[in-house]
Amino acid sequence: MDNLVASKPETASLQTPADEVAAGLMTASASLAKLSVAAGVPVVVAIWALLSPDRLLSREMSWDLLFNLSGAWHLHYGHVAHVDFHDPVGELNFLLTALGFSIAGPTPHAFLVGVTIITSFLFTAAVIVAWRRLPLVPAVIFVVFVCLLALRPANIGDLPTAYSFAMSYNRYGWGAISILSLLLFVPSRTGRGGDLIEAIAAGLLLTALYYLKVTYFVVGLGAVAFALLVSPHIRDQWRIWVTVGGVTALNAVAPYNHAYLADVLGAVQSGGVRDSLENHLMNFFAYADSYAAYIVAFVVAAWMWWSGRAPLQLPLATAFLLAAGAFLLTQNAQPYGMPLAIVIAFLFVDQLRQQRAAPLLLGALLIFPLLSIGTSALSLVGYHLKTGCEQCLLVVDDTNLRGLAVPAEREGLLAAFAAGHTKEPLLNRTRAIQPRYELSQYEYIETITEAAALLAEPRYRPGGVAILDQVNPLPFMLGWRPPRGETLWSGAGMPMQSPEALFADVDHVLIPKFSSYSPGTAAARAKYGAYLANHFPMRRETQSWIVVSRAPAILPP
What we know:
There is one protein chain. By secondary structure, the protein is mainly alpha-helical. Among the domains are: 267 residues, no CATH class; 113 residues. It is built from 24 helices and nine strands. A hairpin with a 3-residue loop joins strand 8 and strand 9. Helix 5 packs across helix 6, helix 8 runs antiparallel to helix 9 and helix 15 packs antiparallel against helix 16. The N terminus is likely disordered.
């Protein structure tokens, strides 16, 4: 035994210069200034890649981006979320873009300004949390990982080339819940001097999650409760953390949030909750190879605890993160991709660092967040380059939608249908066997710009406008007052209001012949058709639209 002990320094002395460099990188302390600069540079570059083009490129689900712009337009006019307009998504999603309006003006670019604002908040919170817990290199990776989740122009689980800003609240939510989880399940290495600051940061993260999407807030509040049971550094400060959880929970149910909760409940009662066990199981097994690493991580964490190499907190925290991530995934419109589970890698980094594990082992654990960073970076680089492709984009050059770009088509199918070149409109030309009766991005922009041009004619008085489609971008596009009482998103699983409530503040209703979601338009025509026939005489019909308006909203010829 004595010989074995004596041999350790000799073994250590055999480290190569590369080993020493790796050890230094993986154990170097993260000063606040070093971390801020090292993480700030790539984040600023990413923001530049997103903001510097003079156009915003939307390759998929452009109507979801316009949903955000429409909600922000309501706030711009002083309307109150969930009172003057309705949606189960929280107000913060629209407030960020409304702030962008005040900085960049009423254009799609304002949405990107909002992305920058929320990224700045996430950067600050991530730096505060990672600085006290991780060595410099892992801390930088964590901060960049979180920020690029928010900045990437593609949803989690989508291809990097999706170039979509749909459901941006999910990207923000994954980032915020990741920061909160690191705070709750990894203890600080720098003492308790900043515990109060971290508690305030946690409270702000929870509040932001609540006003982004309720499901993330529920998971965040559950994480605080679970950490009080399993995390000694949280349990030792239980008064602070009970206060954080209690205050944010009371805010959630406060009277001024009752309208918000009513919108959430209305969506739940209309089928907004994704509760199909069969679909969840199919998604899991379809991407089982992606989840295998997470399951292995839990097994390793349990083994480390069983063998005395780690506290019970490690497998318990790992299990919670997997369960929480799986729950969030079931309620998101994405088949796979669970950024919260990547936080498990940082739990292992902290545990192995305390055991002075080999630096290469610590570095190997960081492959998971590095791959996520690589995906986000690839998406941002591709997006930046694609926005400069003049011949492959259709760019809107008028209305408040100016600067929005979508993939160009040689000849829009709507135009081909109107010219008699095809008898079957809106077929998916890339899939000759199975037809598609929904609009492409190009065709959607064609139809809504046509609608805006119609209403811009002198015969139509500016007033409230409604569309029997998923979203209503026309008030924003025309700069008109948005109608009070509308439901921002009228897609599947959303409640349908009574016609008296929906059209009370409406002067013009546009009925699309080709919509972004034809079953929804068909259901709306069935429910509202008789009311519209009695109160809104038909004024115009084009290849894409039927326009009906109240008599006072039409000027005499």
